[in-house]
Amino acid sequence: MPDENKMIVINSLHLLVQQQLIKINGYLIMPNHIYLLWEQLCMNGKEFPENSFEKFTAKTLINKMKQMKDMALKNYVVTTTNRQQNIWLRNPLAIKVFSKEVAEQKLAYVRLYKKENSKKYIEG
Length: 124
Description:
Distance between the termini: 16 Å
Number of strands: 3
Mean pLDDT: 87
Low-confidence stretches: none
Number of helices: 3
Helix content: 40-55%
Radius of gyration: 15 Å
Strand content: 5-15%
Order of helices and strands: HEEHHE
């Protein structure tokens, strides 16, 4: 994932934090997926913050690819009635964390993975 696209993800997370919808405990942006350890503080109207995040980042990335006439956009084309492209997986692997111990374990994994894989990834 180009650094420019990583910043779109980071800016989206920052916006949700500013709106006091989420609290971020850690994240790791990788070439084809991200790890997020966050706490949902409240709904964004009738929408969950994760849906707001996915919607904002997808729209921004798709618009960027259209403006730049990026051929990679064809990799995200879908044949559904409600959209032309899909950036995020339909059913992401989201795991609820119910204890401090599990949260610390997940954070340790993110930090270890980043340390072992140099500066290819952005960690927060």
